[in-house]
Amino acid sequence: MGEAMNPRVRLPHALKPLEGHEWTQITIGKSGASVWRIAMGESALFLKAEPNEDLAEMPGEVLRLDYLAEMGFPAPRIVDHVEADDYHWLLMTGVKGEDLTHVTGKPEVLVEVTADALKRLHALDPAHCPFDHRLERRLQDAEANLLAGRVDESDFDIDHVGWTGRQVFDWLHANKPRESHMVVTHGDASLPNLMALNGRFSGVVDCSRLGVADRWQDLALACSSLEYNGGKALVADFLAAYGAEFDEERYAYYISLDEMF
After folding, report:
1. Which three-class secondary structure string do you get for 108-131?
2. CA torsion, points 139, 142, 147, 149, in degrees to nearest 10?
3. CATH fold of 13-93, please?
């Protein structure tokens, strides 16, 4: 059971009623925001706080959660969004179940839920999605992160150890693959952001990077996360369940692109 706790920054007036509840900080994931689970009897709400900076992702996440709600896709639903004291605050419902890092001992569940999650998300009509994450736009976002000092070179994958953010960015510009199979992508389709209940897909979380892109934006990160959590054999099983063949060029590219975010 988590301890009763308050966030490190002062709650805005509209969220003060939450102070009397039990708080548990969520530490999994690499988001620049802070996230807490707030017990509400037998259920819970989730509160995310992010500094109100020029490149903050939370305003975009609010729009994306509204879009997913309109599409009827399982994801958190917004309870409140507040801007106060130089912070964005987002209060959301939870998604039933647990994220896939909790079922790494069940490789068949990892494979089937990851494949089902992405097949269902990628089945949404991209013509009705207002968020453009094609490479031209994402490279603009990547350069903005680089210039703002938001690229963590100390956290690069093994293939980029010793590289600078500028070197990765220049490589990305010089090696853009042809985009095909444009779909609505999650943008960070790693196991912590995919939820399951009783071995079945139950929803997605952390949706600030959702947008129309090549499907390998999601497939690459899913493959990498599956290999990290369960071994390389899961990659082939996942791609077979999803219905795609491994694409070395696109895999390497989208893994490299993720270094910038």
Report:
1. HHHHHHHHHHHHHHHCCCHHHCCC
2. -170
3. Phosphorylase Kinase; domain 1 (3.30.200)
Give the model's pLDDT for residue 2: 39
What mean pLDDT do residues 116-129 have? 98
At 90, the pLDDT band (50, 70, 90 cuts) reads very high
pLDDT tens per residue across span 214-248: 999 999 999 999 999 999 999 999 999 999 999 99
The catalytic residue among 188, 214, 237, 247 is 188
The pLDDT tens digits for 164-194 are: 999 999 999 999 999 999 999 999 999 999 9
Instruction: Look at domain 98-258 and name its CATH class.
Output: alpha beta
CATH 3.30.200.20 in the chain, residues? 13-93
Distance of CA 161 to the CA centre of its chain: 23
* Residues 50-55: contacts with CB under 8 Å, at least 24 apart: 50/87, 50/88, 50/90, 51/86, 51/87, 51/88, 52/83, 52/86, 52/87, 52/88, 54/148, 55/144, 55/145, 55/148, 55/150
Does the annotation count 188 as an active-site position? yes
